[in-house]
Amino acid sequence: MSVRVGVYVCHCGTNIAGKIDIDEVVRFSEGLENVALVREYKFMCSDPGQALIQKDIEEGKVDRVVVASCSPLMHESTFRSVCERSGINPYLLTMANIREQCSWVHVDAEDSTDKAKDLISAAVSRTSLLEPLEKRVVSINPRTLVIGGGIAGIQVALDLADAGKEVVLVEREPSIGGHMAKFDKTFPTLDCSACILTPRMVSVGQNPNIELLTYSELDEVNGYVGNFEVKIRKKARYVDPELCNGCGMCWEKCPGTRVPRKGNAHEKLSLGPTSSIYMPFMQAVPAVPVIDKDSCIYFQKDKCRICEKVCERNAIKYDMVDEIVEYEVGNIVIATGFKTFDPGIIKRYKYGVLPNVMTSLEFEVMNCAAGSTGGSIVMADGREPESIAIVHCVGSRDNNYHEYCSRVCCMYALKYAHLIKEKTKAEVYDFYIDMRCFGKGYEEFYDRLLGEDVRFVRGKVAEITNVPIHESEKDKLILTVEDTLLGAVRRIPTDMVVLCTALEAPDGLPDIAKMCNVSVGKDGFIIEKHPKLGPVATATDGVFVAGGSQSPKDIPDTVAQASAVSSAVLSMITREKIEIEAATAEIDEDRCCGCRICNTLCPYLAIKFDVEKNVSVVNEALCKGCGTCVAACPSNAITAKHFENRQILAEIEGILSAAK
Amino acid sequence: MKYTYYPGCSVKATANLYQESIDAIAPKLGIELDELDDWNCCGATAYMSVKELMSFALSARNLALAERYHRDIVTPCSACYLVLNKTNHYFSDYPELRKKLGIALEAGGLSYSGNIRVRHLLDVIVNDVGIERIGELVTRKLENLRVVPYYGCQVVRPEKDFDDPDDPKTMDRLIEALGATCVDYPLKTKCCGASLMGTQEKLALSLCKELLANAENRDAHCIITLCPLCQMNLDVYQVKVNRLFKTKFNIPVIYFSQLIGIAMGLPFRDLGLQRLAVKLTRPMKAIVGGA
Question: Whole domain around residue A594: which residue ranges?
């Protein structure tokens, strides 16, 4: 069988042509076996570029295509659809990646050109042996799983539910609301966080399209886009939500105390009751308490049972156990949010050692009118501080911890400065590296604060100590800093220090990512499909990401991204059907000896065993074509379609034969 | 346990009391320190900041000489430790530098492959001999002796090979193993002024003053240190601090090895304690006895 391969070399502006000698590559490609013609163009992915390929196919000049351009992640789907439109099977295409894996990463022009030739030679050899494959179409379940009930998850759930679609919203904590529920005011408008969040939380609780599972965690994900099967673990809260009416008698009478944070005098800082049976905060949704087993006297010492006695509705159930519930969903949204960096790791800042050194999140709770201080700013001994230091970039923009900028800290630091000035007579010192006020109305807010008598000091705080040198430093927290505007090292005594801690990926995110088959970056956050053009999708179809789990974000950006996810999910649901990858594994029944080695190796649980025939069988809908089983099969009975052994060997031969 | 020993120049001269105490305790601890033949000066941290490459080359020579014995190289001096250890780390981390040092060594008929570790004597004693073994060797009760563990700035920075750079605990553990009381001392890694004592004396004295003041107001009987320069600044210059700031500090500043020797019941003369500028005080003697 003779094949006619067309090779299309893309300049990608100067991305490729700036490094690689296109003329030389074209000349080389023309000499390769099975190549019918070679063309080059400035942007192969553009309309005229695609038209070049389409014309050649339609005129019968070529029947297979090699596009030498960027990564297949970028444009494989583009060129597959060109093939399809022009009348050949889309799987008769190979992308030779001469951009990401060649021109972008090499320094020497001649070497890059040689490597481009190798890659094209490999692609041509492989393409000559490709087989046409049929794409499969699957239907999409209109129900969506949303993981995380912070503002991101709430927004997605409400958007979808308002559009009439069913949502399963899973939240690890006893209540939805996330971090936003702990805030008092929000920057830069200083509107009350609870006033804008609580109505949405209530809507989630009431919306018939939303199945709300709080105090629950994702346990298992199976299936594929449109047809996921998920298992969720509902942790035992020891209170029956059907019976409880949230009257509060139990936590008022509870003699237990949840374990406070070690070493900090502000250990009683809390939004909700500090008893063992507790509601995280008063506006919790659902308004059902939960028992903290670790501090509950009954669970630890087998006596007490006071909450049971005082509950008139008999809602306390000590024998409750974790329960696994299963759902079928079409799409999954990861909206787990973030956690804050533990500043105790930076020993120089003495967090957890010196009272009155606190984190930003603790300061938020202190400011919150519903918190244990009633919103007043007080020191551990109850006095009002005379001076407060706000320290930016604790754990972020620091090569020892997190390289990235946490984005929100500058703005909430300004908010704190404003709140302190509003509530106390304290002097405010704001230690910043750069003031990053990037959003709408942010710079204006900074400008406003410049007029509020806040002492801005540009410099990274080196150390916080309670060891005085001068009389004026006695019983103070002294911050040492290089004031880079002054060009001098300063020691500034204060009464209280607020550490603006970095936002980091939350515990458990890697597990969720693994279950959903998406990747996390070296910063720990979920990697989106494309940083610019695919900011809410992931590399796995049907899995989306919103909010802090993708990168540190403020509330406006989180809500915007969440609504973008909603629209992407709705677009999937509205389609009803989706084409999925045809490159799957296939088992030759005659060769399979029934050893079942592949059954346990398959990461997607796509291989089942047919007991009657004594052979293993691939479920094509679940198979992702990863090839693990192919490599492991001792009988060579499994073929990875589109990545057959002979195709891969041809590719290797192509590379080796091109080498000088 | 046998180690290649790199004494450095201080313990051969101004800090000979450090060497004497090391010689006294090492056999008891089961440590054999085999002095490196033909070692040269490490250049100290001062040279490192003036001529980095030359400084690396100086230390590379010592490392190359030591590598023949396939043992860890141990030094009691913080500056030597910093420079040797930094050279060793940079040698493996930076290929360009490795190449240059290779050429320099070759000119002297030497070569280095980066296969030995640089250790501070404190690390060896506490982590190799072990706290438990040290505890077993204690014969003299140091109960109620309040000891400040002063690490200085060099031993934990820039490499953090055996302890936390901001809150090191190795000497804290040692003090407790010897039965003494470890004083909570937030200035444990603060600079003593180091060689500034020769060029900016007032500044260095003010740094020493803070260290001494905070030891005094924490009711410490003594300060222990692991660095010849720290010891000299705090001990020998204590009288100058007193003169300049009108203070009355009288705090003995001894080496951790001397404290180990005291706890083991060794004669004070063997430990070089008679060479201290600030002698052991009466309250301290009341606890440690007066051999």
Answer: 585-640
